[in-house]
Amino acid sequence: MKILHLTPHMGGGIGTVVMDWMDKAIAANDHYHRIVCLDYANDKAKKWAEKKGFPLAENMGRYPLLWKHEISEVDIVLTHFWDHPMLADLFA
Predict the structure, then answer these.
(1) pLDDT of 31-61, one tens digit each?
(2) MF terms per GO, please (predicted)?
(3) Starting at the edge strand that comes first in sequence, how are the strands of the sheet with 32-37 ordered?
(4) CATH (residue range 2-91)
(5) Do the Cβ atoms of 34 and 70 come closer than 8 Å?
(6) Partners of 10 in the beta sheet?
(7) What pLDDT digit, counting tens, does each position of 56-78 carry?
(8) Do residues 37 and 60 lie in contact, with contact meaning Cβ atoms separated by under 8 Å?
């Protein structure tokens, strides 16, 4: 199964929560995971994704044509949602 994780960013607090959640999800299955950050990903998140072996794209809010086509190619789009202006703009 292909899963696209959509998140505003992968910063300190929220990024740690998302990474911990994904560690459990990855351990429980062998699905393909990809993360699209609308804004930045900090160094910790980038190193973590590299170690886990799946792609993490950052600053994609500026380039929706580079990733929106993937929505039709995956089985699940999981939005790690919190009140963030970039998500509000995306879903408006």
Answers:
(1) 888 899 999 999 999 999 999 888 899 999 8
(2) transferase activity
(3) 56-57, 32-37, 2-7, 76-79
(4) 3.40.50
(5) yes
(6) 41
(7) 999 998 888 888 888 889 999 99
(8) yes
- Matching residue, tokens 């160094």: 43
User: Could you tell me the residue ranges of all domains in the chain?
Assistant: 2-91
Residue with tokens 């072996």: 53
Compute the CA torsion angle 89, 45, 4, 68 (nearest 10 deg).
Answer: 40
Asked if residues 2 and 72 have their Cβ atoms less than 8 Å apart, the reply is no
What pLDDT is attached to residue 79? Answer: 92
- Using DSSP, state whether 59 is helix, strand or coil: coil
Which amino acid is it at 8?
A: P
Positions of E strands within the chain: 2-7, 32-37, 56-57, 76-79
